Amino acid sequence: MKRIIIPVLAAVILVLALGQAQALTIDVLDKVNIDTPKSKVVEILGQPSYIGPVGHGLYAEIYVIVSLPPLNGSGLIYDRDDTVAGHALIFEGRTGEQTVERLVTLGFNLLENNPGIWRLEGKDDDTAIPVVVTVSENDNMTSVIYLEKNFFEKNMKSN
């Protein structure tokens, strides 16, 4: 059940927020890190296109992106004290293998390698906080979801 949450989150980001797109840039998105308080996120990104539950009493804020092809959307996952625990990026196209290769060159360790889905762990480049990254391909899109490692282990990891 818990393994289903990550692919479902990717689909929710794309499907539920269509039509409410925002013009954000990579530089602006990069200002939001793991452990950023929600109040600071709103200062940086403004109001999200959609807010919705992702299970386990947690929620995500979704931002649909129109000005950064192939990036279609971004989602922030909050922990129970309203700080960013994870970030999801949705790209048009099947770029999973290239994304994984790039993460490995940046020092991430490949934990799982299944058809169309990869899991890695490493450190956030801005904060050095340990993260778990899931890269998955579905139809003609690639999702990259990174979560703070302790948050992942407590909320998402399969038993």
Brief rundown of the structure:
The protein is α+β, with helices and mostly antiparallel strands and 159 residues long. The chain is built from five helices and nine strands. The chain is globular.
Percent in strands: 35-45%
Tell me the overall shape: globular
Q: What structural category characterises the helix and strand content? A: alpha+beta
- Unreliable runs, pLDDT <50, ≥5 residues? 13-21
Largest sheet: 9 strands, mixed
- Secondary-structure element order, N to C: HEHHEEEEHEEEEH
The radius of gyration computed from the alpha-carbon positions, rounded to a whole number of angstroms, is: 14 Å
Number of beta strands = 9
* Count of discrete alpha- or pi-helical segments spanning 4 or more residues: 5
Mean pLDDT: 83
Query: How far apart lie the N and C ends?
Result: 10 Å
Measured as a percent range, the helix fraction is 25-40%
Describe the protein in words.
β2 and β3 form a beta hairpin. The protein is globular. Mean pLDDT is 83; it is low at 13-21. The protein is built from 5 helices and 9 strands. Strands 1, 2, 3, 4, 5, 6, 7, 8 and 9 form a 9-stranded mixed beta sheet that branches. With 159 residues, it is of the alpha+beta class. The longest helix is centred in the N-terminal third of the chain and has 15 residues, at 2-16.
Top keywords for this entry?
159 residues; alpha+beta; 28% helix; nine-stranded mixed beta sheet
Strand-helix topology:
Blueprint: H1 2-16, E1 21-22, H2 26-29, H3 38-45, E2 50-55, E3 58-68, E4 71-78, E5 84-92, H4 96-105, E6 109-114, E7 117-123, E8 130-138, E9 141-148, H5 149-155
Parallel strand pairs: 1-3
Antiparallel strand pairs: 2-3, 3-4, 4-5, 5-9, 6-7, 7-8, 8-9
